[in-house]
């Protein structure tokens, strides 16, 4: 059974068809990339999958449940987490506090337990703190847990976003341009971390990424969007030699030259 199935997804803003009849399937334990030129509809498609937008057509099945029209917090609680193209951290909170916030959908303490500092709440708080530190160790920034998020270097802020997403015990994580703005060394480290998400934690990964070397080195399957429509799908070799993909990125002349 597929972990995620998006069928005939369409999203329209006024006269702009941002996503046009896209069907997309992800198997458990895979690393899948969604690529395409700027404005191709990739982030809008992510927003539909994660409940930020409701599709105008189509449906989304995740972990065997039809989540079409669900709120993003409901989808997150079911096990789908994401990061964003533009980093969205709580800048004036510590690194550790940012990760703890990512656990909120799974915490059980009632408002009265919190007010009166009940024993069960204190146990849950200690357990959550230990888990947050473990996640920060996994992404490599545990020693910075007491620093304000805004004071982290750019690459570490990206790592913190991933740690916060992991705090919700996801089955699948969607990464929107996780290496944007990184230098080559940071990109290499990020690539290794993405592999470890799947290999060490068993999390299925979908990423939007413009770094083609990263995409081609890590992806088991690639879907290509252009002007909101899916124009190609397949393994790395299939996508690398697809004339429509070459045309979308480099123009008709490049595609014709490749075919010749």
From TrEMBL:
A Gene Ontology biological process term: L-alanine transport
GO CC terms in record: plasma membrane
Pfam families named in the record: ABC_tran, BCA_ABC_TP_C
Keyword check for Nucleotide-binding: yes
Keywords annotated in UniProt: ATP-binding, Nucleotide-binding, Transport
Domain of life of the organism encoding this protein: Bacteria
Statement: the UniProt record of this protein carries the keyword ATP-binding: yes
Domain called ABC transporter: residue spans: 4-252
Matches recorded under InterPro entries: AAA+_ATPase (IPR003593), ABC_AA/LPS_Transport (IPR051120), ABC_transporter-like_ATP-bd (IPR003439), BCA_ABC_TP_C (IPR032823), P-loop_NTPase (IPR027417)
GO molecular function term, any single one: L-valine transmembrane transporter activity
CDD domains: ABC_Mj1267_LivG_branched (cd03219)
Protein name: ABC transporter related
């Amino acid at each position: 059974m597929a972990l995620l199935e998006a069928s005939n997804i369409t999203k329209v803003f006024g006269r702009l068809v941002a996503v046009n009849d896209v069907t997309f399937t992800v198997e458990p334990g895979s690393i899948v990339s969604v690529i395409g030129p700027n404005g191709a509809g990739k982030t809008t498609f992510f927003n539909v999958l994660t409940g930020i937008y409701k599709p105008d057509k189509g449906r989304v099945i995740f972990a065997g449940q039809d989540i079409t029209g669900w709120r993003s917090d409901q989808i997150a609680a079911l096990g789908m987490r994401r990061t964003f193209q533009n980093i969205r951290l709580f800048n004036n909170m510590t690194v550790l506090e940012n990760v703890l916030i990512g656990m909120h959908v799974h915490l059980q303490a009632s408002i009265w337990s919190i007010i009166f500092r009940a024993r069960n709440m204190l146990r849950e708080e200690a357990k959550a703190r230990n888990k947050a530190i473990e996640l920060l160790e996994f992404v490599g920034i545990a020693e910075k847990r007491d620093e304000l998020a805004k004071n982290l270097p750019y690459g570490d802020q990206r790592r913190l976003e991933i740690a916060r997403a992991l705090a919700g015990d996801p089955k699948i994580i969607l990464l929107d341009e996780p290496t944007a703005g990184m230098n080559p060394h940071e990109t290499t480290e990020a690539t290794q971390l993405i592999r470890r998400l799947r290999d060490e934690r068993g999390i299925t990964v979908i990423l939007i990424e413009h770094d083609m070397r990263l995409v081609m080195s890590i992806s088991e399957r690639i879907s290509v969007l252009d002007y909101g429509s899916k124009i190609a799908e397949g393994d790395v070799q299939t996508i690398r030699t697809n004339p429509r993909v070459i045309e979308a990125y480099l123009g008709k002349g490049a595609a014709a030259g490749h075919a010749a």
